[in-house]
Amino acid sequence: MGKGKARAANIELLRITAMVMVVILHYFVKGGADISLVEDTGAINLILWALKGLCIVTINLYVLISGYFLLEAKWKISRLITLWIQAMFYSIGVPVVCFLFGLGEVRNWGLYDWLNVIFPVQMEHYWFITAYGILYLFVPALSAGVKQLTKKQHQLVIVGLLLIFSIPKTILPVLIPTDQYGYDFGWFLCLFMIAAYIRMYEIPFLSNKRRSFGVYFGSVAGMWLISVVCACLSRKGLPLAYMMDMPYCHNHFLVLTAAVGLFYAFRYIKIPEGNMATMICKISPYTLGVYLLHENLAIRTQWQLWAGIEKVRDSFALFPHMFLTVVAVFIAGVMIDFVRDCIFKFFIRMWKQFFA
Known about the structure:
The chain is mainly α. It has a domain at about 30-280. Helix content is about 70%, strand content about 0%. Helix 1 (about 5-30) runs antiparallel to helix 3 (about 60-70). The N and C termini lie far apart (about 45 Å).
């Protein structure tokens, strides 16, 4: 599967791909292009729902990657502190800039909105950072505990977690009170246990790239087909509109299998050492900045409007428009986070020199 830098480039490319998927999802879901299949089964909407299926694996991918490496990595509280400070840099900085330049609706915000800015972790300004931060606090105990389990016990723990967080919502056509759609620490715990299992034992079925990609695309096709069928039956009066949306939740079983399949597939991709691998490894550390920028409360539903998505929603021009917009958002996020990183490093040097 590749060693050293070439192998690292594979995983870093997966991180970049996952972040591009995040931006694509937010482009049409929060940009008003995401229309229920019950209302619209035209070609454009069907393609959008297929694309949504290809991209919905993104959060699971990030946690699988993290869990895979955190199992053996040295735990440092400084990493969590740095992550939270990075989140605060964006949660405070972006609204301040928008306020100064009159962008968006920041000047109409109330107390609750500004509390989201000042306390981004506690208020779930960025839900992923909140859930991931809780998971990271438990990593030392989880890593130690996992290594005490037998393979059979580890499998049973995963099955138990899936029976709580995934299987019921996958098969039942009704709202489950405990279901948080994968936006919580509980689902991240399940993903960590799966990633740890992959690290320790592997999954023999996913023993080659073709089979891994097959699981990914097969799972996505399953999501799409379930949603289309449920939408058609809903039009005939059956109460299946809820189940139509469920395959596109992070904790749906098909989303999980798709994410595991794609995770394995990228592990088999070989990127030779050279300019390409170097560029991938240099860009990847700044991809979280793309998320923290475009999902900031001040602009998370504004940048789609600025891009003019409503002008192309009903035509195939939507797809090149989406490509250009996503690329622009990604590049802007990487560049801004590079500047943020330089600022952080400058203050860290000053801090060290002061105490030296």
